[in-house]
Each structure stands twice: as structure tokens, then as C-alpha cells.
From TrEMBL:
Pfam families: DNA_pol_A_exo1, Mut7-C. Residues 1-24 have a biased composition (Polar residues). Coiled coil: none annotated. InterPro entries: 3'-5'_exonuclease_dom, Exonuclease_MUT-7-like, Mut7-C_RNAse_dom, RNaseH-like_sf, RNaseH_sf. One of its GO terms (molecular function) is nucleic acid binding. This is Mut-7. Residues 27-45 have a biased composition (Basic and acidic residues). SMART domains: 35EXOc. Residues 1-46 are annotated as: Disordered. One of its GO terms (biological process) is nucleobase-containing compound metabolic process.
Amino acid sequence: MDTTSAASDTGNPIVNDETPMTSNALEEEKKERTLTKAEKKEKYGKGSFPEPLATWRDLIKDLLAPVDKTARSAEDEKETIEIAESTLSQIFGLAENPYKAMFDIYVVFSEKEKYKKVHRSLFKTFEEWIQKCATPEKMEKWLTSEFKVETMDKIVNKGMGQLENLLRIFQLKGSELEDRITIKIKDLCISESKQLFSEAMKLANHFELHEKFDVDLFIIPLVLKNKTDEVEKFIKGNYRITRDLIRYLDSMVEETDQYKMVKMKPYMDRKIVNERQAYEFINSKRIPSLLKKFVTSEYGMEDAVAPRFEEQKIKGKLRYLLFDREATDGGFTTTIFDHIKTHIKKSSPYRKDVIIALFDRIDKRDKTEDKSTYYEEAKLWMLYYDLNPADFYTTIRSYFSSQPNWREDAARMLVEYDTGVETCSENELEDGTPIEWIDTWEGMVEMLNEIEELGEESMIGIDSEFRSTTNYKQEIALLQVSSQEKVYLVDFELLDRKLSKSQWEQFTLRLFGGEHLKIGFDMLSDLKAYSATLKLDLEDLRCTMTRVVCLKRLSNDLLDLDSSIIDLTQSTSYRTRINEGKSTQEVESANRQRAIKLSDLVEVVLNSKLDKSLQKSNWSNRPLRSDQIIYAATDANILIKIFIRFKEMATEKGYNYEEMVESIENDLAERKETPTEKKKKAKMTEEEYAQLVESINAAAISANGHEDKPKSFITDSSFFGLGKHLRRLGVDVIFADSKEHLLRLGRENKSRIILSFGKNIPEYKAVFGDRVFVVGMGMSALDQVKKVLTEFKIKLSPSNVFTRCMLCNGDRFVMAPAVVLQTLHDCAKRVGESFDDELFQPGPFKEKIENANPDDYGGFECKLEEYDPKDSRFIVKCTNGVVDIYNNLVMADSVDSPVEVQTLKVQPEVVESGRPFYYICGSCGKIYWDGTHGQRYKEFADGVVGTDSSKSNESVRNE
């Protein structure tokens, strides 16, 4: 009989192409599927666990993981755990092999979160029981080689949430297991059902099998899965594995995406990553960031292990040195010349890259811009490096052919810029303080002797200048040590290579461990650079220190004690930074470090100006110029003068300065709020917020029944904090950083209210009359805001928070889905680093934008408006405006002209964070995003708009 046709006749499905299911069987199967867990247990019994294991399981589960989730009191909980542990001890005592009993109990409980307490009590009780009851003879009987091997197999098969505990308890270590473990590790990594790379690495680490495996088995897979922290611990101290991982990563540096995807293919074939994940990995900054981490002395790796990465660093630093001219107003200076000739030596294989970079820059500049400075610099470097124009491409050859006198021009420039002179062995500051250059061990010893002879009441200032290097850690090129009688300049650039480790340890102990007072401005940063340069342990260095004082910390403490001691608003640069929004956090809270610079203190405390123009000069170049020597010596010597002036100012106010200094000696840690301080800043409740809104909004509605017209403001330097708060709440506020600036802004903006306080009020009122509003300085920030909002009848609304750009006060934001910012960031990074549009591969991004679903991006759309890579056209329409990818521009609706997007100021980890969308300011290009805002504003904003950071982070923008 044909069963197929029979089945067809009855209309029933075929089971295994053999027997048709009857309608009764189908009904039974349906009922079986709908049974609850409890009904199945009643029908089939408690389970397949044999006795007494089933009873043990139920007993322990009832005690430590009961079905009834009713909370127990602490006393009941403690008693229950004691009963459970006593029960477990009895089970172990009665078992023929307690190790087997313990493991059987472990196996019947899954790795679920609800059984963690069971595992914790099980392991703790068993280890305590073994310590009390086991003897060498019993251990030999219980833990046989066969039993260990069998248990090892079970541990791996069970799953390894408790791997380290089980390996320790079962003493699973030794050569007898090595071959078996090696096979198991490979099985874990190539399993088709589930690849357990982390577990494989844990086994390899536990059994010290680092040399048994290549990086492609589990090291690279874990890196691709972004589990770098686990990899770091495993590879540290193992040269071969670290080297091979670095070589793999380095092979993709400066390569095309096509080549990189070939390198990724083996891992895609093993289904470790899919194509999208592979593409994201090769186009993120993870490859250079991993190389930056691993190619260091910490991992025993030299730059030569990663030649491509080293070349990328050198060329990147070259472009930075050539074109970062903010401090020189775009001009070429001796400082730039010194940096480049140190970075690219005359014997360097990268000499030609200097010329090529300059001509690439010329090609990228607008036709109307002045390019002459780059042409002149190209001549200079062509002569300095003794290069032949005929060895370059056509554009460069043609230019030099058109300049028959280029050598003479370059020679004149060399005379101007290559002004190296003999390093002065002695010099002096303007006040006659002598300067001594130290470049021998004997000179260092003599310096220390002279300092120690000054006695324990003496003080020294310590500062440092850093090397010009492609390394990412700051290293010292010059150490400045100043007493009141003399300044010593210690040539670290030379002595670092000449002195032994023992000599450096002696020097360090005597310099930082003597009885004299050591004063630094940002001492912790200097100590980090000192330890990095000499490869010393920072904590060991800090342990040798005595009587070390950080001037930045001291100035913050003085301000906390009495803000009238140091009036930072008298510092021009400090006011400017506040206006730019760079130090608002520090100004607004006395419990955090303020962003104080040494130049601020010199201006405010010593009523002088500190020239910082040479801060970025080349301190690795030898010989140093005379102006560099004077600059470096001044920085150290002036620390003592500020310290002494602080004492005079504090004493005048009646404070015990010596006691304050003693309290912070050797305390270099960044200050954090104490629990008491945090408690004082408790969040405003919804009820309190409602009362605040009611009181302010009631005042905002005037007697005639309507809200006043929107108000706009100008704040002077006394109220930048208030101005920032108002701007965050959506109020139109602009900042004036000086009296003259405020007068000009007030005349230009005749409808703006001026918020001020202090001695300038009479002058302001004489000019602006009733437009001047005086706010009390003694009020809290919250009270100041309430006063302004109430006085001018401004209604408060949570929806207004962060509707203005904190940088420029603009209120037009383009809503860019994450895919648009990712595209912008990738293009800006590649084109910015290489000056070559062709290195940006737009195709995959175009596809993502075309397929973008608004539901995935917070409801915000993006549509491709123009796309022509050959003509560098890639324009995307977003909510409220358009984004020009190639030109890195944003054009907001109702804004007259596009502005450059501040794309590369956003860190890669933010771009890759998974946030659905970003806000781009249409007035200045600054980028914001929804998030916690680093808690910089929550303490205040929670009080004003009623949000609670513990409940939601969605309404506050980061920047």
C-alpha cells in the first residue's frame, strides 16, 4: 500500500514518511505542549536525578533558591544559610567520594543567576570541609588521575561559569592533563554549535599553555568580539603571542578596505564575525588604538614590530607639525623648524614626505588663498635635506623648474630659522638669578648638595618640558629645579641615555625625598612623565616623596576657603576659557578642581604676564636657544614666588597658611566629593519641582494675564556661571569677557538685558539705564536663576532644556541619524589625515543611508540628495537641514550659510556607542547627543527642570 496516498486521503501528516498520525495523537501532542512545568512534574515525577541526588537538590533549593520569593529578614537569611551549609557538610561526610558528591550537586543546578547563592555556599562549605576532614591518604583516594580527567571533561561539557573555582577545588593542573586540555581548547574554538573563546583562553591560561596555540585560534577572535581586556591579561609577558597579534593588526594599517576584508575572511568563514561586523572593525579606530596600547615597553614591544603603524605615526606627527599653526597665526616659525628637523632627521627615509605633504596642502587649498608660505617652506626643506626636485612627481618638478633661484631663497631662510647656538652653561634671569645647565652625573650630585645645604626650611620649584616624540606618553626632555638662589636645568634628553638605573634611583630619592619643600604646579602630571621617562613605577616614586606640594591643588583649597583671596576673574585667559565653555564645571562647583593655569596665577597673584609662546617649542633639540633656556628657568623659579605670595595673602586674611600647606603635602590625588558633600546635593523631588514651577510660572503671568515677551540677556565675566545655566534652560544669553566687550555688545544689541554685579554697575547704568539688572553674588546658582526667571516673567519648561548651543547660543539644530555622523566621521578622519578624498570609500555608507529606517534612529529620517564620488558630492537631507559629507558642512533650515561640522572633536567611542541620533548646531557645527552629560549639569538641572538622573538619562545632552 502506498502510505503517501493513504495519508493524502485521510488528510493527516506523515511522521518520518512512515506512519500517519491519528487525530487523537495530534490532540494528545497539543495537550502535552500546553502543560505547565508543575503539571509535567506531577505527571512524570520530580525528574531523572537518581536518589539521593534528587532529594539533596530539592532540600538545598528550598533553602537557598526557594520558589517563594518573599524577602527574609537578615537574621532569617543568616540562619537559612547556616542550615544549608550544615546540610552540605553532612552530605560530604556521608559520601564515598565527597568530590563526586559536590560536583554532582553543582551539575544539577544550572548557571542561572538565581542559583549563584547555591554555588557560593556549595564551594565555600566544601573547601572548609576539606580543610577540616581531608588527609593526604583520603585525597589520594578521592582525586585519582582517572577521576580528574573524567571531571575535567564534565566541567567543559557542563559550561564554565564557575571554571576557575572548579579548577582550583579539583586541583586540575599538571602535565598529565596537558594533552587532553589542548584538544579540549581546540574543540571549544572550532565547535560548530557554540564557540567558547573566552573559556578556551581561561583554560590555556590556567594550564600555562600559552606557547601551544597561535593567535588565530582564540586571541584574534576575542579581539574581533571586542573582548580586549581579557586578551591583555593573557598576552602580557608573552613575547611571541603579543608580537604575532601586533603583526596581524599592523598588516592592515594604511591598506585598502578590500585588502583588509581579505585579512578578515578566515574569521568570517568561521562565523566569528559577519561582513558588517568585519567592515565596522576595519573602519573603526580599534586597530590603531590596539597598536597604540600594545606597541609599548609595558608589553615589551619596540616600534620595529609594527613598521606600518610606526610609519603612520611619523607621517601623522609630520602633518601635525607642518600645519598646526594656531599659536603662530598661520606663520612659519623657528619652533616649527626645530620640531620638524628633530622629527625627520637628515638621514630619515621620510625626508621626501615633508615636500609631498606641503604640495598636497597647496593642492587642497582654495584658489583664492595665499599659498606662498608653503612654497617657500618647500624650498627650505628641499635644500635642508639636500633633495633633488627631479626625484619627485611632475607638479613638484615643474614648480622648482620655474624657480631658478630657489636655492638662494632657501639659503636665506635657513639663516633665519636654523639659529641653533651653543647651549649656555650659565645664564641668568631678569632679576639676576643665575641659571646652571646640568648634563653630567657630577653636576647632578653638586646640584643636590647645594640644595641640601640650604637646610630643611628651604624650598625648590620643580617643572619639566616634554620631548617631541611620536610616543603617546609624555616624557621629559628637560627638568627644571629652582631654589631662591639659583635655577638648575637638568638635560634629561642626554642624561636619560648616559646614566644607570642605580644613579637615577639615587637622584630621585635625594631630589624628592629630602627635607626641603618641593613645589610643582601640576605635580602629578610631572611625576607621571618623570616615571614614564625613567621607566619607574609611579607608586614607588610617590612612596619616596616627602614634603611635596601641588600649587594647583593649593590654589583650589585657598579658593574654597575664601574666594576673595584669589580673584580669578582678573585673569584674561581664565575669563576667555570660561566664555568658550571650557571651565564651567570647575567654576560652578567648589568641590571640584578648577581649570587653573600657571599663567592665571602669575597674572592674578604677581600682577605680571607669563609668556607661554615657547611651551610647544622643541625641547628635544640640542642645543637649546637662549630664549628657551630663559623660558624654562622662569617657569620653575616663578613657582616659589607664587607660593610665598600665597602665604602673604592668606596671612593678611587671618588664615594659618603653614597648617594648610602641611595638610596637603604629598596629597596629589585628584579631589573627589565626599559622601557627605554628595548627600548635601540631593536631587529635587517631583513635588519640590512642581512647587518651583508653580511659583515661577505664577510670577511669569503678570496681572494683565499674559506672559511677557521673550527676554534676551548679556552677562559680564562675574556671571558666566549664571549665563551658562540660563542658556542650558533655553534662554537667549551672550557673554562679554571684559567691560569694553560688554559696552560694545550692549550698544549693538539694544533689546538685551545686562546681568551684572560690582564696581562697574554705575557706569553700565549711566549708558544703558534700566536695561541693567543687578544679581547678588552671594546667592546660590539656583537662587540666581530663580531671581532672573521670576523678575522677567520667563516661564519654565523642561522641554526648553538644551535647546540652545552651549558654545554659540544658536537654536537651530540639524537632527542627524547615527549613520550620518558615522559617515561624516569616517570621511573627515580619512581625508583629514591623508588629504586625499580617494581614501574615503563612500559606497557602503551610501547603501546604509539609503536603507536607513527612521525607527532605528529615534524617528529621524535621512535621505540621499546628491551622490557623485568622482566630483566629491555626497549630500544627505536630514531633519531641519542638510549635511555635506565630503566638505564636512552642515546647512540648517532658515540659516543663511553652511558651517563646518566639528566632527573630529567627537571621540570615536561616542560615534560607535550605538546612540540613535545626534544634534548638529547649524550656527557653529558643534555636535551634541542625548546622554548623562557626564553629570556636569545634573545636580543643578534636576533642581530646575525636575529630571532625575537615576531614572532617566534621555533628556540631557552631552557635548
